[in-house]
Amino acid sequence: MAHDASSPAPTPADSLHRRGLMFILSSPSGAGKTTIARRLLAEVPDIAMSVSVTTRPMRPGEVDGKDYHFVSQDEFDRMVEAGEFYEWAHVFGKSYGTPKAQIRAELKAGHDVLFDIDWQGTQQLYQKAQADVVRVFILPPSLDELNRRLIGRGTDSAEVIAARMERAQAEISHWDGYDYVVVNDDVETCFAKVQQILEAERMRRTRQTGLIDFVRELTQA
Ligand code: ADP
Ligand code: 5GP
Description:
Bound molecules: adenosine-5'-diphosphate, guanosine-5'-monophosphate
Oligomer: single chain
Structural class: alpha/beta
CATH architecture of the domain at 15-50 and 110-220: 3-Layer(aba) Sandwich
Radius of gyration: 19 Å
């Protein structure tokens, strides 16, 4: 990957082969995980978004195949039957699922995969791929601020916002099923923290599969 003058020059260890990791961002709706996810995708190399399948209607500005694969309930049920999901769950009365094919290809290529999924999906992925999963939970600074953000986003009706607020406390109660918890007060600070978590997890010895040969060379001199 090319680097510019604003980023540090890669060290030999940066270019070693490593196992891709599954980086999960969860939060109550409106806390800011989509905002943080978009920044990660735009600014951090070698990470791809897992595009979920959903039966919920498309929001203004969303793109089919980029934000989600939007499908009918019949098509979703067919995919469940055919075993095409890594995990799936009901959220806000709609179905959401993580399709297997894209993730397998990204991990095989040594890319990390970013997931915007809820606590149910997080538990299922963790059970299936514990060693490869990093779980990050994003909290809002307060419930009032969460409400303001849901209104300010301007994508949901008052009824939907009320339902999301009602569910927020139940979602927050799953905070202890995560490896890291970050409060999204200031977006820059939150993004920097999440990026640091990703960078540190990438350096875990067990993920750096190219280290054995590299260290062997260093120690054979
Ligand atoms: P989620 O994906 O968790 O539902 P979003 O990323 O869509 O949340 O954020 C909800 C709204 O809050 C958006 O309008 C976003 O621009 C805004 N937002 C996100 N982070 C912050 C922040 N730290 N301060 C103020 N507004 C924010
Ligand atoms: P939204 O409708 O706001 O895009 O997402 C609603 C909730 O569904 C969010 O908490 C989001 O993380 C979750 N979600 C999105 N995709 C998936 C998925 O594939 N699996 C699971 N379990 N949850 C998902």
